[in-house]
Structures are given as structure tokens and as C-alpha cells.
Amino acid sequence: MTAPVDPATRKALLIAQANLQRMQATLAWHDVRQAVMPPGSGVRSGRARTVATWVVGIAVPLLGIARAGRLMRALTITLTVMRVVRGWRSLRRRR
Predict the structure, then answer these.
(1) What is the pLDDT of residues 57-91, one digit of tens each?
(2) Where are the alpha helices (DSSP H) in the chain?
(3) By the 8 A CB rule, do 85 and 34 touch?
């Protein structure tokens, strides 16, 4: 049989466990955030903006604003999913 635990000791243990779980959740959130949004390099972002501007400048006159918007939305969602998958794969390889 186990000995009865003092209520103050039990309360302190529960507080410590809650703090540990809170820290673990924070670390998990940071891992997910880094997988989804890895830190970008400044070199690539300027060129990417130039390419994106060029694509929008061509797509809007050819397709119209509504179709170009739908196409950009679908493309954005697809690229986001690809980024998440690649981030999760890289996290798995590190462990």
C-alpha cells in the first residue's frame, strides 16, 4: 500500500506537472512553427518578389482578375502544403 500524501505536497506536484506540460506544449509549438515557416534567406526573397510580380503582371491581363485570383489562391495553398511536408520531413531526419 502507498502512504497517504500530504495535500501540500500533492498540490506542489500537480503544479510542477502542469508547468512541465506547458513547457512541452510551447516547445512543440515552436517545432511546428519552424517546420511550417523556416527562417528565410534574404538573398532569395528579393528575387522571389520580382518573379511573383512578373507572374501576376502576366496572369491578370491574360486570365482576368477573378480567374487569376482563384489560380493564385490554389497555387498558394499547394505551395504551403508542400512547404509543410518538406518541413516535417526535415524534422524527422534531424531526430
Answers:
(1) 888 889 898 998 898 899 889 999 998 888 888 87
(2) 7-36, 42-63, 65-94
(3) no
